[in-house]
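USER: Study each token:
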Amino acid sequence: MHLHHDEITTSRSTSTGGWRVAVDRAWRSESMRRRFEKESGLSPVDETLEAQVNSGEVDVYYKQFVVWATRTLDLNDQLPAFMQRVISAQP
């Protein structure tokens, strides 16, 4: 599950591509995922398990992770327009 999933994605680069790359790196980082789980209270997911994918559990986790990673990595200035709306709608 990567950004194409919902047009959503850890380093600081330039433009939208930089934001995507940064969030994608965070998604692949075991330490970032564990930190997210600890802070959010969500359980780990395995995007290769069909049951978790079909139940929507992976989708919920991923969407929340993207918002968390964007805020945690202070990537707000790199957000594309569609994500600005998503991020601003989150508590």
About this structure: The helical segments are 15-28, 30-40, 50-55, 57-72, 81-89.
